[in-house]
Write the structure tokens for this entry.
Amino acid sequence: MKRETQKLTIEGELPDLNEILADAKRHWGNYSSLKRKWTVLVAELAWTQLKPVKRYPVAICFEWYCANKRKDIDNVAAGKKFILDGLVAAGVLEGDGWRFVSELRDRFHLDKEKPRVEITLRGGSWN
């Protein structure tokens, strides 16, 4: 049985955890605005690049292409919250809970010229 695989690319870098926390500390409403902005952006990209998932659960791999190594990888990966919420908002995923997502995998690379995130959705798991 062939597993369904889809790929989404987001150009540029998403806010890291330190940026998210600093923004939230400046004003209580800042996190909400930041989350809404990035969720909508991801949803708009997902509408053009992906189809709704038909079989659950899915495994999701995040390939983070960073411009440099200044940020810790755990801070970079905090952007997956916006990505998952955007996939749900776009109707690509019905939800991002245990019933719908079996695995989240992060891989990190350097690309000074073209920072981005490549997200691969695959039916089942990576095994």
